[in-house]
C-alpha cells in the first residue's frame, strides 16, 4: 500500500476499534506516526500488540539474493 492508502486504511480500522490501540513509546512517537501497521492482533490473546520482527539468526550458508528480512513493510 502507498502512504495515502495506508492512512485511509488506518482511519477505517480506528473507527471500527473505537481508537483502541496500545500506545507506542515516546521515542518512537518523535520519529514515527503511529498507525495500525505498527501492530498485529495476537491470535492467542486476541489483543493488539506492537509489531516487532522475530529473532533472526543467519544460516550457515548465506546466499544474499535469497534473504528475506522481516520489516513492517514486508
Summary keywords:
8% strand; elongated; 74 residues; 2 strands; alpha+beta; two-stranded antiparallel ribbon; 27% helix
Topology, pairings included?
Elements: H1 3-16, H2 26-31, E1 39-41, E2 48-50
Antiparallel strand pairs: 1-2
What's the total helix number? 2
H/E series: HHEE
For the sheet with most strands, the description reads: 2 strands, antiparallel
- Average pLDDT: 76
Count of domains: 1
Q: What percent of residues are in strands? A: 5-15%
Task: Tell how many strands the DSSP assignment holds.
Answer: 2
Oligomer: single chain
What coarse outline follows from CA principal-axis ratios? elongated
Arrangement of strands in the largest sheet: 1-2
Summarize the structure.
The chain has 74 residues and is of the alpha+beta class. The chain has 2 helices and 2 strands.
Q: How would you characterize this protein structure?
A:
This protein has one domain. It contains two helices and two strands; from the N terminus they run H-H-E-E. It has 74 residues and is α+β, with helices and mostly antiparallel strands. Strands 1-2 form a two-stranded antiparallel ribbon. A hairpin with a 6-residue loop joins strand 1 (39-41) and strand 2 (48-50). The chain has helices spanning 3-16, 26-31, and strands spanning 39-41, 48-50. The termini are close together.
Amino acid at each position: 500500500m502507498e502512504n495515502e492508502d495506508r492512512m485511509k486504511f488506518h482511519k477505517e480500522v480506528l473507527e471500527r476499534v473505537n481508537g483502541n490501540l496500545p500506545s507506542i513509546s515516546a521515542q518512537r512517537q518523535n520519529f514515527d506516526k503511529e498507525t495500525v501497521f505498527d501492530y498485529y492482533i495476537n491470535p492467542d490473546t486476541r489483543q493488539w500488540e506492537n509489531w516487532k520482527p522475530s529473532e533472526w539468526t543467519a544460516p550457515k550458508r548465506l546466499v544474499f539474493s535469497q534473504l528475506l528480512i522481516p520489516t513492517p513493510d514486508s
